[in-house]
Amino acid sequence: MAEAFREFQYPSAPLAVYPEEAINGHRAFIARRRALRPSEEYRTLTDAEWEEFLGQLERRKVALGDCGRAYGTSCQPEHRCVRCPVLRVDPAQRLRLEEIRSNLRERVAEAEREGWLGEAEGLRVSLAATENELSQLDYRRHRATTINLGIPTFREIAGRIS
Ligand code: SF4
Known about the structure:
The chain is 54% helix and 7% strand. By secondary structure, the chain is mostly helical. α3 packs antiparallel against α4. The chain binds iron/sulfur cluster. The site of iron/sulfur cluster has 11 residues, from loops.
């Protein structure tokens, strides 16, 4: 039976070929599941809906990069993008982010000086989030510029020995 599921297998690139019954069974399952969904979900979109969808994608563009919130959802953090986990910072906005960090540092110092402890606490959270975003940018840049020196990994060495 196992052979029926694996007609071809090459040492470097294993390939599984499934029997026709398995494929047909899977397709029938998908058709049954679709039949259970409201037919409204499978109708053709109107032009207005399509425009609305495209507009939503355009509204994902924010000053610091791209907003990754799900389609049709509103902005829960009320546009505090720098503290938002779904923000994807555009590397071209690094200077803007550095300005935000410097501004936040000044505002934290002012709030502490003036005794606005609640304000200082919120600003420190924003400052930590900004520093985190800058570190993420550094990490992404480092990964993009990593050069392979051809040094074998432990896994490759262990594979040769065994
Ligand atoms: S706060 Fe978050 S969800 Fe709202 S616009 Fe900014 S990145 Fe998007």
